[in-house]
TrEMBL record:
Residues 1-60 form the HTH lysR-type domain. SUPFAM superfamilies: Periplasmic binding protein-like II (SSF53850), Winged helix' DNA-binding domain (SSF46785). This is HTH lysR-type domain-containing protein. Keywords: DNA-binding, Transcription, Transcription regulation. Belongs to the LysR transcriptional regulatory family. The keyword Magnesium does not apply. One of its GO terms (molecular function) is DNA-binding transcription factor activity. It comes from [Clostridium] clostridioforme 90A6.
């Protein structure tokens, strides 16, 4: 099974016919048909029905099931291609949880690219448990995570901490200090922050498992806060970015524990680009209200 064969399979699905797919790939129709026949021979089953008189392709049951497998194969192939870039001193491979990448890192990326144009940034958005695996495998140089755990050969180092605050659509008219007891769960925009936050949330709202919307994508938060009467509990760095004409920020009288963001790196390994990036991140964190950086003493 080769990349050309998988590419042929998906292009035929996209184009709707072998003739159109061949034109899109700049190959002859017989050449493209041979790729599919070779793939089917390797798999041991047909992917497409071959009925005379039909112009559009039709997948067999095996072909429909193969779509998910082919997508996974493409993902593995892409990871394999990235390996050749690992030892390049001109590339910084990093990842982050969504809230940090959306609201803190963009400015750091810009500063890094301006000050160190000789180093390229290769960024991935990974959850915490995925980041440990990629750091350990060497696919990522540094990762920012919220859920810390033990992982052999990977160091988990505090990067910064910040309080959790209350934000709401201005239609709500909340006081400066808000008690969780006065909140309506049915109006909540629920987001997963870390296990400590989940325990706090269960304490206050476990008997009322309601919410307006539950999100796992940070870029949807600001849109949801445009809805009338909605509210959310977010880290201070997020609140600093989204507060404005439609959103207000308030203190919580009984807040969740402060959120700590950690960075991961391979034990006994820190490249020069990583050190440069951490220094710029520290400068950025110092400009965000209520955020305290641990990075002033980050190792060079």
């Amino acid at each position: 099974m080769t990349h050309l064969e998988i590419e042929a399979f998906f292009e035929i699905l996209k184009a709707g016919s072998i003739s159109c797919a061949a034109q899109n790939l700049y190959v002859t129709q017989p050449a493209l048909s041979r790729r599919i026949k070779v793939l089917e021979a390797e798999l041991g089953y047909p992917l497409f029905e071959r009925n005379r008189g039909k112009r559009n392709i039709v997948l067999t049951k095996q072909g429909e099931a193969f779509i998910a497998v082919a997508r996974k194969w493409l993902g593995v192939w892409q990871e394999a291609q990235e390996i050749k870039r690992l030892n390049s001193p001109r590339i910084l491979n990093l990842s982050s949880v969504g809230s940090v990448s959306s609201y803190i890192l963009p400015d750091v990326f810009e500063q890094f690219s301006q000050q160190y144009p000789q180093v390229s940034i290769c960024f991935h958005n990974y959850h915490s448990y995925e980041a440990y695996q990629y750091i350990d495998s060497g696919l990522i140089d540094i990762a920012f995570i919220s859920d810390h755990m033990y992982y052999k050969n990977v160091e988990t180092i505090p990067a910064f901490f910040e309080p959790m605050v209350f934000v709401a659509n201005n239609s709500c008219n909340y006081p400066d200090s808000v008690s969780p007891a006065m909140l309506k769960p049915s109006q909540e925009i629920l987001l997963p922050w870390n296990p400590e936050y989940d325990a706090w949330h269960d304490y206050w709202f476990r008997s009322r498992p309601e919410f307006e919307v539950s999100l796992d994508q940070m870029d949807l938060l600001e849109h949801a806060l445009l809805w009338k009467d909605t509210w959310a509990i977010v880290p201070a760095s997020v609140a600093d970015k989204i507060v404005g004409s439609h959103v207000s920020i308030h203190c919580l009288s009984s807040p969740p524990p402060d959120r700590i963001i950690y960075y991961l790196k391979k034990t006994c390994k820190q490249t020069e680009p990583v050190s440069l990036f951490l220094k710029l991140l520290h400068k950025k964190l110092e400009t965000i209200p209520q955020v305290t950086s641990y990075l002033s003493g980050a190792p060079d």
